[in-house]
Amino acid sequence: MRTLFKGGTIVNADATGKGDILVDGERIALIGENLDVTADKVVDATGKWVIPGGIDPHTHMELPFGGTFAKDTFESGSRAAAFGGTTTIIDFAVQPRGGTFRQGLDTWHEKADGRTCIDYGFHTIVSDMRDDLLPEMDALVDEGVTTFKLFTAYPGVFLSGDDAIFKAMKQTARNGGLILMHAENGPVIDVVAADLVAQGTTDPIGHGLARYSIFEAEATNRLIRLAQAAKAPVYFVHMSAKEALNVLRAAQNDGLPAFAETCPQYLFLGLDDLGNGFNGSKFVCSPPLRDRAAGHQEELWKGLVKGNLSAVGTDHCPFDFHGQKEMGRGDFRKIPNGLPGVEERLDLIHHGGVVEGRMTPNRFVEITSTGAARLFGLTKKGAVAVGYDADLVVYDPNRRHTLSASTHHMDVDYSCYEGLEVQGGSDVVMSRGKVIVDNGQWLGKPGDGKFVKRERSQFLR
Ligand code: URP
Ligand code: ZN
Ligand code: ZN
Description:
Distance between the termini: 36 Å
Bound molecules: N-(aminocarbonyl)-beta-alanine, zinc ion
Number of strands: 19
Strand content: 15-25%
Helix content: 25-40%
């Protein structure tokens, strides 16, 4: 099957130019001006951009959390991602406590294989970092699961001690893997949260009030120093606080290999969203949404523009308001943590980044695709280039549309951005040579997506 994209403006992280693209099978075969070639299908991209398919490095399909499961399956979540212009996700395979990393990986393969509509990779969530598992980390890195998420949050569930984190970091310093960190001070947050509940604050706002931004900064600083001592790189997931970003900036200025992502919710939503009675439970995630007046959002945008933040992930972890978020009525500590967002990432970042004048189209592509590809070893993805996977999006930078639960494809009963009008939309989405979304029409199927064995990080070579 040969597909020709005609007349578009190709936007890569490092360059923009007019050109046609010939896709042959699963790969990009030829790029040039006014290509005179035969093709089975022609996609007219006149007046539009052609960008590399989005890469979301942080999703949680079917994550068990707080006595329930994130609602989107690999099928529904990956389909929604595709509608939003994302053609690769990296999801988190959870090690069962007391079990091995491989058991977690096997479980996640059972959930995802044959069901996912776009390509996918896995990180490992480390629930229980034991010495006997250190050699297994080496094996996983060699098998393309090169990244391990550890937590200084969620005591009794995912929290690891500093000693365990340090050992894992030392192991990746040897084997070329990368430690991802959820940086908050979980035990101290629990103290503040218990005080709030004792004083009568049981609504969702308590979640935001308990999790101080300086707790994120404290953990970020501690982890950077542990990584420095271990001579290992470190990547912070879902950075939300300006104080944490400042710690990261200082480390980067000192030449340390410290990296981070942020998420759309920290750029668009705020602590006030948690404040509308129990409706605020829709916005409960960790780290929490921050006080808009304190200026976190503009600092995070600056971090994205200047390169301190390398990628935008969604931390997509959707729970229905009815029946799931409601498990925390009367005690905010029981609300399942997480928000939907895998579908809206590109359009929100395009709108807030490019349309509102903060960044170039190239940087938009870099933080939604290329940056994650390079950091996470997706060596055939993240660019419109000959020989690369034909993951392509015909993106209309002018189309305006309104985000709503009534039109989104995620399997969740609300949208965090209900009624928000954004500019920019994915018209045609191709995944490894197959058009799976064509102007709102779904042409993909479960199992089109393949597991991607990732290389070691290209940022660290
Ligand atoms: O609230 C969140 N972020 N839920 C998903 C788990 C995590 O910490 O990423
Ligand atoms: Zn986390
Ligand atoms: Zn997460």
